[in-house]
Amino acid sequence: MAQNFDSLKQACRDQWQAYIQHPFVAGVSEATLPAAAFRHYLQQDYLFLVHFARAWGLAVYKSRDMSELRHSLDNLKTIVDTEMDLHVDYCRAWGIDQEELQNLPEAQETLAYTRFVLDCGHRGELLDLHVALAPCLIGYAEIADWISTRSQTVSVDNPYQAWIDMYRDEEYQQAAHREHLWLDERLAELSPQRFAQLTTTFRDATRLEAAFWQMGLDAAR
Ligand SMILES: Cc1ncc(CN)c(N)n1
């Protein structure tokens, strides 16, 4: 049977679930997450987005034809022109201004995750980089879906509603869908050995996403 993106998720089922349904995400959904946890997450996520934009820039650089290049460029634009602007506006609403964001010290979890992804890109091929980036782009679209289907989700007066809406937004969901299809096409052709190698990358990136949520929770203790 041909492998696809769902095969990657299946191979890392426990780690994927621990990321998508992390207590931080449940707290956002139920409006019970401590504000200090979310604030710390927002600050570090600004730094994260800067490095992830660089990683998509690296994917543009590593592309072999115009179709690959345009695909990575679209993802770079989603971060720089849409997600980052919304993020900065959102931080401002939480009383965090641009100057504060630019002068933040980088947390270990941010360093570990972002440099891991950049290293996958430098060391490997374009596909290694896309697989390392997938938990970020596709994972948040799935998280927004998970939140919207939960009966426990609070949708009236939830202080995190604007953040949830950012990832439920059609443009973000479509970018995640395009990446899903892009990966499905490339994963189908691989040898079992190559698929196993990419599974390790995907699992590690997923673990680093869960650690990023945990960093937010720990900041509120
Ligand atoms: C840590 C993290 N992972 C993913 C995303 C969604 N692009 C994000 N903003 N931050």
TrEMBL record:
It comes from the Bacteria. SUPFAM superfamilies: Heme oxygenase-like (SSF48613). Pathway: Cofactor biosynthesis; thiamine diphosphate biosynthesis. InterPro entries: Haem_Oase-like_multi-hlx, Thiaminase-2/PQQC, Thiaminase_II, Thiamine_Salvage_TenA. GO terms for biological process: thiamine biosynthetic process; thiamine diphosphate biosynthetic process. Residues 11-218 form the Thiaminase-2/PQQC domain. GO terms for cellular component: cytosol. The keyword Hydrolase applies. One of its GO terms (molecular function) is thiaminase activity. It catalyses: thiamine + H2O = 5-(2-hydroxyethyl)-4-methylthiazole + 4-amino-5-hydroxymethyl-2-methylpyrimidine + H(+); 4-amino-5-aminomethyl-2-methylpyrimidine + H2O = 4-amino-5-hydroxymethyl-2-methylpyrimidine + NH4(+). It is an enzyme of class 3 (hydrolase). Keywords: Hydrolase, Thiamine biosynthesis. Its EC number is 3.5.99.2. Catalyzes an amino-pyrimidine hydrolysis reaction at the C5' of the pyrimidine moiety of thiamine compounds, a reaction that is part of a thiamine salvage pathway. NCBIfam families: salvage_TenA. Belongs to the TenA family. This is Aminopyrimidine aminohydrolase. It comes from Kushneria indalinina DSM 14324. The lineage of its organism: Bacteria, Pseudomonadati, Pseudomonadota, Gammaproteobacteria, Oceanospirillales.
